Amino acid sequence: MPAWPPAGKRAGLSFTLTARNMPFLLKLASLISGWRALTAALALLCALAPARVLAQVFDSELQRFRLTIVTGGLEHPWGLAFLPDGRMLVSERPGRLRLIDAKGNLDPQAVKGLPPIAAIGQGGLLDVAVHPAFRQNGWIYLSYVAAGTGGYGTEVLRARLRNRALHDVQVVFRMRPKSATGYHFGSRLVFDREGYLYITLGDRGEQERAQRLDDHAGSVIRLHDDGRVPADNPFVRQAGALPEKFTLGNRNIQGAAVHPATGELWAHEHGPQGGDEINVIRAGVNYGWPVITYGRNYGSGTRIGEGSEKAGMAQPVLQWTPSIAPSGMAFYTGNRFPAWQGDLFVGALRDQMLLRIRLDGERVVRQEALLKSVIGRIRDVRNGPDGLLYLLTDSPSGVLARLQPVP
Length: 407
Prior knowledge:
Layout: E1 9-10, E2 13-14, H1 21-31, H2 36-48, H3 50-53, E3 55-59, E4 64-74, E5 77-82, E6 88-92, E7 96-100, E8 125-130, H4 134-137, E9 139-148, E10 151-162, E11 165-174, E12 189-191, E13 197-200, E14 220-223, E15 253-258, E16 265-269, E17 276-281, E18 318-320, E19 326-331, E20 344-348, E21 353-360, E22 363-370, E23 378-383, E24 389-393, E25 398-405
Antiparallel strand pairs: 1-2, 3-4, 4-25, 5-6, 6-7, 8-9, 9-10, 10-11, 12-13, 13-14, 15-16, 16-17, 17-18, 19-20, 20-21, 21-22, 23-24, 24-25
Protein backbone atom coordinates (compact mmCIF):
# COMPACT_ATOMS: atom_id res chain seq x y z
CA MET A 1 0.00 0.00 0.00
CA PRO A 2 1.23 3.57 -0.61
CA ALA A 3 2.66 5.53 2.29
CA TRP A 4 0.62 8.27 3.85
CA PRO A 5 2.28 11.71 3.88
CA PRO A 6 4.49 12.43 6.89
CA ALA A 7 2.28 13.59 9.73
CA GLY A 8 4.74 16.09 11.11
CA LYS A 9 7.72 16.52 13.37
CA ARG A 10 7.64 16.84 17.12
CA ALA A 11 10.59 16.81 19.55
CA GLY A 12 13.01 16.13 16.69
CA LEU A 13 11.16 12.98 15.56
CA SER A 14 9.62 12.40 12.14
CA PHE A 15 7.38 9.55 11.02
CA THR A 16 6.04 8.28 7.72
CA LEU A 17 2.92 6.23 8.46
CA THR A 18 1.79 3.41 6.21
CA ALA A 19 -1.21 1.10 6.28
CA ARG A 20 1.09 -1.63 7.50
CA ASN A 21 3.08 0.15 10.18
CA MET A 22 0.27 2.24 11.72
CA PRO A 23 -1.26 -0.67 13.73
CA PHE A 24 2.23 -1.88 14.69
CA LEU A 25 3.30 1.53 15.99
CA LEU A 26 0.07 2.00 17.95
CA LYS A 27 0.38 -1.46 19.49
CA LEU A 28 4.05 -0.91 20.32
CA ALA A 29 3.22 2.38 21.97
CA SER A 30 0.46 0.83 24.08
CA LEU A 31 2.37 -2.30 25.11
CA ILE A 32 5.72 -0.80 26.06
CA SER A 33 4.65 1.42 28.92
CA GLY A 34 8.18 2.77 29.44
CA TRP A 35 8.19 4.39 26.01
CA ARG A 36 5.96 7.25 27.10
CA ALA A 37 7.50 9.55 24.52
CA LEU A 38 6.47 7.26 21.67
CA THR A 39 2.91 6.98 22.96
CA ALA A 40 2.67 10.74 23.38
CA ALA A 41 4.19 11.37 19.96
CA LEU A 42 1.75 9.09 18.16
CA ALA A 43 -1.22 10.60 19.97
CA LEU A 44 0.02 14.07 19.07
CA LEU A 45 0.47 13.13 15.44
CA CYS A 46 -3.13 11.95 15.21
CA ALA A 47 -4.46 14.98 17.08
CA LEU A 48 -2.51 17.61 15.16
CA ALA A 49 -2.91 16.27 11.62
CA PRO A 50 -5.98 14.02 11.70
CA ALA A 51 -6.95 14.31 8.05
CA ARG A 52 -3.44 13.42 6.84
CA VAL A 53 -2.55 10.65 9.27
CA LEU A 54 -4.88 8.13 7.64
CA ALA A 55 -6.79 8.58 4.39
CA GLN A 56 -6.54 5.11 2.88
CA VAL A 57 -9.02 3.87 0.26
CA PHE A 58 -10.46 0.36 0.52
CA ASP A 59 -12.55 -1.78 -1.82
CA SER A 60 -15.29 -3.87 -0.21
CA GLU A 61 -17.74 -6.19 -1.93
CA LEU A 62 -20.34 -3.47 -2.46
CA GLN A 63 -18.71 -0.15 -1.69
CA ARG A 64 -15.42 1.64 -2.17
CA PHE A 65 -14.65 3.78 0.86
CA ARG A 66 -12.03 5.95 2.51
CA LEU A 67 -11.04 5.64 6.16
CA THR A 68 -10.04 8.95 7.74
CA ILE A 69 -8.89 9.70 11.27
CA VAL A 70 -11.07 12.49 12.68
CA THR A 71 -8.99 12.93 15.82
CA GLY A 72 -6.56 11.05 18.03
CA GLY A 73 -5.31 11.58 21.56
CA LEU A 74 -8.08 9.49 23.19
CA GLU A 75 -7.28 7.09 26.04
CA HIS A 76 -9.31 3.90 25.73
CA PRO A 77 -12.37 5.61 24.23
CA TRP A 78 -15.56 3.61 24.87
CA GLY A 79 -18.71 5.38 23.67
CA LEU A 80 -19.65 8.03 21.11
CA ALA A 81 -22.71 10.28 20.83
CA PHE A 82 -23.59 13.19 18.55
CA LEU A 83 -25.01 16.51 19.72
CA PRO A 84 -27.41 18.52 17.51
CA ASP A 85 -24.91 21.38 17.14
CA GLY A 86 -22.36 19.11 15.43
CA ARG A 87 -20.20 18.38 18.46
CA MET A 88 -19.45 14.84 19.57
CA LEU A 89 -19.16 13.32 23.04
CA VAL A 90 -16.64 10.55 23.66
CA SER A 91 -16.25 8.66 26.92
CA GLU A 92 -12.79 7.47 27.97
CA ARG A 93 -12.70 4.38 30.18
CA PRO A 94 -10.26 5.89 32.75
CA GLY A 95 -13.06 8.31 33.69
CA ARG A 96 -13.11 11.31 31.36
CA LEU A 97 -15.83 12.67 29.08
CA ARG A 98 -14.42 14.53 26.05
CA LEU A 99 -15.86 17.00 23.54
CA ILE A 100 -14.93 17.05 19.85
CA ASP A 101 -16.13 19.91 17.69
CA ALA A 102 -17.70 19.58 14.26
CA LYS A 103 -14.30 20.02 12.59
CA GLY A 104 -12.75 17.14 14.54
CA ASN A 105 -10.86 19.21 17.11
CA LEU A 106 -10.56 17.50 20.50
CA ASP A 107 -11.14 19.86 23.42
CA PRO A 108 -8.06 19.48 25.67
CA GLN A 109 -10.23 20.09 28.72
CA ALA A 110 -12.37 17.15 29.88
CA VAL A 111 -15.98 17.77 30.87
CA LYS A 112 -16.29 18.52 34.59
CA GLY A 113 -18.87 17.37 37.10
CA LEU A 114 -18.69 13.59 36.71
CA PRO A 115 -19.13 11.48 39.85
CA PRO A 116 -16.24 9.34 41.13
CA ILE A 117 -15.52 6.68 38.49
CA ALA A 118 -14.07 3.29 39.48
CA ALA A 119 -11.64 2.49 36.66
CA ILE A 120 -11.07 -1.12 37.69
CA GLY A 121 -10.36 -4.05 35.36
CA GLN A 122 -12.78 -3.79 32.43
CA GLY A 123 -14.72 -1.02 34.15
CA GLY A 124 -14.65 2.75 34.20
CA LEU A 125 -16.61 5.36 32.27
CA LEU A 126 -18.50 3.35 29.67
CA ASP A 127 -21.26 4.44 27.30
CA VAL A 128 -22.71 7.84 26.48
CA ALA A 129 -26.12 8.55 24.93
CA VAL A 130 -28.19 11.62 24.06
CA HIS A 131 -31.90 11.78 24.89
CA PRO A 132 -34.12 11.58 21.77
CA ALA A 133 -35.66 14.91 22.79
CA PHE A 134 -32.33 16.53 23.63
CA ARG A 135 -33.23 19.79 21.88
CA GLN A 136 -36.11 20.20 24.33
CA ASN A 137 -34.70 18.77 27.57
CA GLY A 138 -30.89 18.78 27.22
CA TRP A 139 -30.36 15.38 28.88
CA ILE A 140 -27.29 13.23 28.20
CA TYR A 141 -26.78 9.80 29.79
CA LEU A 142 -23.62 8.07 31.00
CA SER A 143 -23.00 4.54 32.22
CA TYR A 144 -20.05 4.02 34.52
CA VAL A 145 -18.66 1.80 37.25
CA ALA A 146 -19.08 3.00 40.82
CA ALA A 147 -17.83 1.68 44.14
CA GLY A 148 -20.32 0.83 46.86
CA THR A 149 -21.31 -1.73 49.45
CA GLY A 150 -19.93 -5.10 48.38
CA GLY A 151 -17.60 -3.80 45.67
CA TYR A 152 -18.39 -2.33 42.24
CA GLY A 153 -21.31 -2.14 39.84
CA THR A 154 -22.62 -0.36 36.75
CA GLU A 155 -24.61 2.82 37.33
CA VAL A 156 -26.31 5.26 34.95
CA LEU A 157 -26.76 9.01 35.35
CA ARG A 158 -28.39 11.73 33.36
CA ALA A 159 -27.25 15.34 33.36
CA ARG A 160 -27.31 18.54 31.35
CA LEU A 161 -24.15 19.76 29.64
CA ARG A 162 -23.37 23.44 29.97
CA ASN A 163 -20.02 25.21 29.63
CA ARG A 164 -17.99 21.98 29.60
CA ALA A 165 -19.58 20.76 32.82
CA LEU A 166 -22.40 18.47 33.90
CA HIS A 167 -25.31 20.07 35.76
CA ASP A 168 -28.53 18.72 37.30
CA VAL A 169 -26.90 15.29 37.74
CA GLN A 170 -29.36 12.50 38.58
CA VAL A 171 -28.50 8.81 39.03
CA VAL A 172 -31.29 6.86 37.32
CA PHE A 173 -29.99 3.32 37.85
CA ARG A 174 -27.71 1.49 40.29
CA MET A 175 -26.84 -2.15 39.69
CA ARG A 176 -27.32 -4.44 42.64
CA PRO A 177 -25.81 -6.32 44.22
CA LYS A 178 -22.31 -4.96 43.70
CA SER A 179 -19.35 -7.35 43.76
CA ALA A 180 -15.56 -7.28 43.95
CA THR A 181 -14.66 -8.58 40.49
CA GLY A 182 -13.37 -6.33 37.71
CA TYR A 183 -15.10 -8.14 34.84
CA HIS A 184 -18.20 -7.95 32.63
CA PHE A 185 -19.82 -4.60 33.44
CA GLY A 186 -21.55 -4.28 30.01
CA SER A 187 -22.63 -1.61 29.13
CA ARG A 188 -24.52 0.07 26.29
CA LEU A 189 -27.29 2.67 26.52
CA VAL A 190 -30.01 2.69 23.86
CA PHE A 191 -33.31 4.56 23.53
CA ASP A 192 -36.05 2.88 21.51
CA ARG A 193 -38.71 4.59 19.40
CA GLU A 194 -41.07 4.86 22.35
CA GLY A 195 -38.45 6.59 24.49
CA TYR A 196 -37.62 3.69 26.80
CA LEU A 197 -34.02 3.47 28.00
CA TYR A 198 -32.25 0.10 27.73
CA ILE A 199 -29.12 -0.65 29.77
CA THR A 200 -27.07 -3.74 29.00
CA LEU A 201 -25.23 -5.45 31.84
CA GLY A 202 -22.70 -8.26 32.14
CA ASP A 203 -22.69 -11.14 34.60
CA ARG A 204 -19.73 -9.56 36.47
CA GLY A 205 -17.67 -12.70 35.85
CA GLU A 206 -19.97 -14.62 38.22
CA GLN A 207 -21.88 -16.62 35.66
CA GLU A 208 -24.61 -18.09 37.87
CA ARG A 209 -25.93 -14.58 38.56
CA ALA A 210 -27.22 -14.29 34.97
CA GLN A 211 -30.04 -16.77 35.75
CA ARG A 212 -31.26 -14.98 38.89
CA LEU A 213 -34.29 -12.70 38.78
CA ASP A 214 -33.30 -11.05 42.06
CA ASP A 215 -29.98 -9.87 40.59
CA HIS A 216 -29.35 -7.25 37.89
CA ALA A 217 -26.24 -9.02 36.56
CA GLY A 218 -26.37 -10.69 33.16
CA SER A 219 -29.45 -8.90 31.87
CA VAL A 220 -30.93 -6.03 29.91
CA ILE A 221 -32.62 -3.32 31.98
CA ARG A 222 -35.59 -1.28 30.68
CA LEU A 223 -36.57 2.05 32.26
CA HIS A 224 -38.37 5.30 31.60
CA ASP A 225 -35.95 8.12 30.86
CA ASP A 226 -36.07 9.31 34.49
CA GLY A 227 -35.36 5.87 35.97
CA ARG A 228 -38.93 4.83 36.72
CA VAL A 229 -39.85 1.22 36.00
CA PRO A 230 -42.33 0.72 33.14
CA ALA A 231 -45.55 -0.92 34.30
CA ASP A 232 -45.36 -3.48 31.49
CA ASN A 233 -41.84 -4.75 32.24
CA PRO A 234 -42.01 -8.57 32.19
CA PHE A 235 -41.10 -9.28 35.83
CA VAL A 236 -42.86 -6.37 37.55
CA ARG A 237 -45.44 -8.57 39.22
CA GLN A 238 -43.21 -11.58 39.90
CA ALA A 239 -42.38 -12.06 43.58
CA GLY A 240 -38.68 -11.73 44.33
CA ALA A 241 -37.76 -10.41 40.89
CA LEU A 242 -36.14 -7.04 40.28
CA PRO A 243 -38.69 -5.05 38.26
CA GLU A 244 -36.09 -3.26 36.12
CA LYS A 245 -35.06 -6.53 34.43
CA PHE A 246 -36.19 -7.00 30.83
CA THR A 247 -34.20 -10.18 30.06
CA LEU A 248 -31.94 -12.72 31.77
CA GLY A 249 -29.22 -15.16 30.74
CA ASN A 250 -26.89 -12.63 29.05
CA ARG A 251 -23.14 -12.94 29.58
CA ASN A 252 -21.67 -9.54 28.70
CA ILE A 253 -23.42 -7.23 26.20
CA GLN A 254 -21.19 -4.53 24.68
CA GLY A 255 -23.16 -3.72 21.56
CA ALA A 256 -26.83 -2.82 21.06
CA ALA A 257 -28.91 -0.99 18.45
CA VAL A 258 -32.54 -0.55 17.41
CA HIS A 259 -33.53 -2.29 14.17
CA PRO A 260 -34.57 0.44 11.68
CA ALA A 261 -37.51 -1.55 10.29
CA THR A 262 -38.94 -3.41 13.28
CA GLY A 263 -37.98 -1.06 16.12
CA GLU A 264 -36.75 -4.02 18.17
CA LEU A 265 -33.52 -3.94 20.14
CA TRP A 266 -30.72 -6.14 18.85
CA ALA A 267 -27.62 -6.86 20.91
CA HIS A 268 -24.46 -8.92 20.86
CA GLU A 269 -22.56 -10.41 23.75
CA HIS A 270 -19.19 -11.93 24.46
CA GLY A 271 -18.98 -15.70 24.78
CA PRO A 272 -16.29 -17.65 26.62
CA GLN A 273 -13.65 -18.99 24.20
CA GLY A 274 -16.20 -19.04 21.40
CA GLY A 275 -19.92 -18.52 21.37
CA ASP A 276 -20.12 -14.75 20.86
CA GLU A 277 -23.77 -14.07 20.00
CA ILE A 278 -26.17 -11.69 18.30
CA ASN A 279 -29.70 -11.76 19.74
CA VAL A 280 -33.00 -9.98 19.25
CA ILE A 281 -33.87 -8.64 22.71
CA ARG A 282 -37.45 -9.40 23.72
CA ALA A 283 -39.35 -9.01 26.99
CA GLY A 284 -38.84 -11.79 29.53
CA VAL A 285 -36.68 -13.97 27.29
CA ASN A 286 -33.97 -16.17 28.79
CA TYR A 287 -30.89 -16.11 26.53
CA GLY A 288 -29.38 -19.12 28.24
CA TRP A 289 -26.08 -18.16 29.81
CA PRO A 290 -24.54 -20.18 31.47
CA VAL A 291 -26.97 -23.08 31.04
CA ILE A 292 -26.50 -23.13 27.26
CA THR A 293 -23.70 -21.65 25.18
CA TYR A 294 -21.66 -22.35 22.06
CA GLY A 295 -18.53 -21.35 23.99
CA ARG A 296 -16.16 -23.47 26.05
CA ASN A 297 -14.25 -23.09 29.30
CA TYR A 298 -11.07 -21.07 28.99
CA GLY A 299 -7.95 -23.18 28.86
CA SER A 300 -9.49 -26.63 29.21
CA GLY A 301 -12.00 -26.26 26.38
CA THR A 302 -14.51 -28.30 28.35
CA ARG A 303 -18.26 -27.89 27.99
CA ILE A 304 -20.15 -25.25 29.97
CA GLY A 305 -23.61 -25.98 31.29
CA GLU A 306 -25.90 -28.38 29.45
CA GLY A 307 -24.85 -27.83 25.84
CA SER A 308 -25.96 -25.35 23.19
CA GLU A 309 -29.75 -25.79 23.19
CA LYS A 310 -32.51 -26.12 25.77
CA ALA A 311 -36.27 -25.67 25.64
CA GLY A 312 -37.37 -22.27 26.91
CA MET A 313 -34.02 -20.63 26.13
CA ALA A 314 -33.42 -18.50 23.04
CA GLN A 315 -31.09 -19.37 20.19
CA PRO A 316 -28.92 -16.57 18.78
CA VAL A 317 -29.44 -15.04 15.36
CA LEU A 318 -25.70 -15.54 14.84
CA GLN A 319 -22.84 -16.97 16.86
CA TRP A 320 -19.09 -16.74 16.31
CA THR A 321 -16.74 -19.58 17.21
CA PRO A 322 -13.90 -18.81 17.57
CA SER A 323 -14.67 -15.52 19.27
CA ILE A 324 -14.23 -12.17 17.56
CA ALA A 325 -14.84 -10.23 20.84
CA PRO A 326 -17.62 -7.96 19.50
CA SER A 327 -18.03 -4.41 20.77
CA GLY A 328 -20.26 -1.68 19.40
CA MET A 329 -22.88 -2.15 16.71
CA ALA A 330 -25.06 -0.08 14.40
CA PHE A 331 -27.58 -0.66 11.64
CA TYR A 332 -26.60 1.57 8.76
CA THR A 333 -29.47 4.00 8.11
CA GLY A 334 -27.76 6.85 6.24
CA ASN A 335 -27.90 7.72 2.55
CA ARG A 336 -24.19 8.05 1.75
CA PHE A 337 -23.66 4.28 1.33
CA PRO A 338 -26.80 3.12 -0.51
CA ALA A 339 -25.39 -0.39 -1.06
CA TRP A 340 -25.11 -0.82 2.73
CA GLN A 341 -28.64 0.32 3.61
CA GLY A 342 -30.00 -1.76 6.49
CA ASP A 343 -26.79 -3.76 7.00
CA LEU A 344 -25.59 -4.40 10.54
CA PHE A 345 -22.05 -3.27 11.41
CA VAL A 346 -20.20 -4.81 14.38
CA GLY A 347 -16.79 -3.85 15.75
CA ALA A 348 -14.37 -6.54 16.90
CA LEU A 349 -11.72 -6.23 19.59
CA ARG A 350 -9.92 -9.56 19.30
CA ASP A 351 -10.08 -9.74 15.50
CA GLN A 352 -9.51 -5.99 15.07
CA MET A 353 -12.02 -5.52 12.28
CA LEU A 354 -15.37 -4.08 11.28
CA LEU A 355 -17.87 -6.75 10.30
CA ARG A 356 -20.66 -6.00 7.82
CA ILE A 357 -23.64 -8.34 8.17
CA ARG A 358 -26.36 -8.63 5.52
CA LEU A 359 -29.71 -9.81 6.89
CA ASP A 360 -32.92 -11.23 5.51
CA GLY A 361 -35.28 -10.61 8.40
CA GLU A 362 -33.58 -12.38 11.30
CA ARG A 363 -31.51 -14.62 9.04
CA VAL A 364 -27.86 -13.82 8.30
CA VAL A 365 -27.15 -14.18 4.57
CA ARG A 366 -23.64 -12.70 4.32
CA GLN A 367 -20.75 -11.49 6.47
CA GLU A 368 -17.88 -9.35 5.21
CA ALA A 369 -14.76 -8.45 7.23
CA LEU A 370 -13.57 -4.86 6.70
CA LEU A 371 -10.43 -3.08 7.95
CA LYS A 372 -8.94 -6.23 9.46
CA SER A 373 -5.81 -5.28 11.45
CA VAL A 374 -5.81 -1.79 9.92
CA ILE A 375 -6.53 0.48 12.90
CA GLY A 376 -6.64 -1.95 15.82
CA ARG A 377 -9.36 -2.93 18.28
CA ILE A 378 -12.70 -1.41 17.29
CA ARG A 379 -14.67 -0.51 20.42
CA ASP A 380 -17.68 1.40 19.08
CA VAL A 381 -19.57 1.82 15.81
CA ARG A 382 -22.06 4.65 15.17
CA ASN A 383 -24.22 6.16 12.44
CA GLY A 384 -23.32 9.82 12.07
CA PRO A 385 -25.94 12.51 11.38
CA ASP A 386 -24.00 13.18 8.16
CA GLY A 387 -24.74 9.67 6.85
CA LEU A 388 -21.20 8.41 7.50
CA LEU A 389 -20.03 5.59 9.76
CA TYR A 390 -17.87 6.43 12.78
CA LEU A 391 -15.54 4.13 14.75
CA LEU A 392 -13.66 4.31 18.05
CA THR A 393 -10.51 2.27 18.65
CA ASP A 394 -9.67 0.83 22.06
CA SER A 395 -6.09 1.82 22.80
CA PRO A 396 -4.08 4.07 25.13
CA SER A 397 -3.73 6.16 21.96
CA GLY A 398 -7.25 5.62 20.62
CA VAL A 399 -8.74 7.42 17.65
CA LEU A 400 -12.09 8.50 16.29
CA ALA A 401 -12.31 7.50 12.61
CA ARG A 402 -14.95 7.71 9.91
CA LEU A 403 -15.80 5.87 6.71
CA GLN A 404 -16.61 7.99 3.64
CA PRO A 405 -17.78 6.77 0.22
CA VAL A 406 -15.45 6.96 -2.75
CA PRO A 407 -17.06 7.13 -6.22
